Amino acid sequence: MNPDVLRFSPGAYLAPAVDWLNANFHPFFAALTKLIETVLGGIEAALLYPPAYAVIIAAVLLAGFLIGFRAATVTAIALAFCFLSGLWTASMQTLALVTVAVMISVLVAFPLGILASRYEKFAAASRPVLDIMQTVPPWVYLIPAVMLFSLGRVPAIIATIVYGIPPMLRLTTLAFNQVPKDLLELGQASGASPRSILLKIEIPSATPTLLVGLNQCILLSLAMVVLAGLVGAGGLGAEVTRGLTRMEMGLGLRAGLAIVAIAILLDRLSKGALQGRRIGRSATAA
Amino acid sequence: MNTVKEANDVLLDCQNVWKIFGARSSAAVKAVSERGLSKKQVLQDFDCVVGVSDASLQVRRGEIFCIMGLSGSGKSTLVRLLNRLIEPSLGKIVVKGREIAKLNPAELRDMRARNIGMVFQSVALLPYRTVLENAAFGLEVRGVPKDERNETARAALAKVGLSDWISRYPSELSGGMQQRVGLARALAADPEIILMDEPFSALDPLIRRQLQDEFRQLTKSLGKSAVFITHDLEEAIRIGDRIAIMKDGIIVQVGTAEEIVTKPAGDYVAEFVAGISRIHLVKAHSVMRPVGDFKTSQPHCDVDALLKASPEADIGELIDITMRSERDAVAVVENGSIVGVVTTRGLLRGVAGMPAGAPGAA
Fold it and tell me: What is d(CA B362, CA B357) in angstroms, rounded to the nearest whole number?
């Protein structure tokens, strides 16, 4: 018997499907591309239009007033590094890309994570899908993504979202499963509606774990930035790629450290924005 | 046996309630209702665990009803059936004349928010909220405006003596204080019935005793009814107007502390009450001898000259009176006439917990 008959080749079925989508739904994908490009372009423009020092001062002041002194210091150091290393434009492009990608990842992963914590069957079904999302190399699904959305920021953002969803989803499920049972019982016994229980008991109790999920989502999304450079999304990823192809150690290192600076900045700011005020309050009460 | 007036005052009526846990619980329930299977048979035939078996109890207005049982006796399940945190498998629970199994979700929430409060063993305070915000939680989910609910919560916290702590967080409070917040949270919603699920079990003995007294006094002064779950018979006796004793999901006896101590139903209850001090529990009416009986056995004793006590005087008071008297007996007077005589012998019998009419009663 010829083993070739049994050879498994899903691409043989998927490639025509992608071609068909591309031929028949091109306007839809074009519109989607345009929408994402517009949002990203808007954020980039807002970050790049004013002079760099103005953006840094505004960000530091905002962090200081809304979160605290420490967050303001981190903001100042991270942004100053990006500026002084001569990668301001690329840094802001990456910041915009990752911010949008993380927001979309969280918007998708958070409700699905809650569903998975409520319905065991959904959780069981989602697990292999999440494993696939985390382990299939992004280059694989970038091929159809580039075919449908063409080169640029959109396929990059898709790859980033696919990579950012699993950690947020898993940790959302864990966070909700860990909410103490007696607190849920309290909600029910007090006559709270399911919505009140979610907003006033479950989400606040789950916040510490949710923040870990957000942190993982941000860091893994930033890991995709280099890939984004590869498909022509620009930003720090493009600088890293350029450093590699030209064997410029200095450029690669600066771009790499700028990515770290952006990662720390996003993590501290998101954590502070979601939790900072409460910590401040209990600290003054103690 | 209740009179009509008492029956009208029943706030919470639990009639022949069963709770069966397990994969085949519905088949087990059917077998129980049709064939009257026992708990053991249900476990054997259906692999289902009976949590609560044929429990009936009535809680009257203003009454503190204790449910005492060891762990695994089904008392925590039973109390959760009363506000439908757990759905009963069989039977009927009527709160304020409404069968709670028939309420829709919104009506059930309203009933829980307005009529049935609950206090938990684990306290269940929200760690990210201040004491005041915790106490106002029940009102908040009911949609009471902020100023109003804070005022009510502040008043409830004042009742439990925590006025100075309202802006603190639960982690800054001791265990006893945390449980006071739990109680204030239940009181702030102003329910008619408060379910207390072993609220003081995790506290040290001194604080526990203090909270027991405060709780009883507070409940009585506010005119609330309470169902109080405990594994400690002494606590049940201290707090409860009536006590139900549970074993293996079955209520084995319901009665006042005195009834349970003097007339335990079966060996299980008797074993429990063996170590309980009877001095403040047993009353004159259960240790006295009928006056005619006394006169025939001691004809030379002048009953009218004895010191007098009421039928409700407990053994402690009777001992005091006997010590002041020159004689060995105290007359029990009800409505102006002597109904019986408590002898020293009778007192000793009462203290030792020997049932009346046992050998040596004369």
Answer: 8
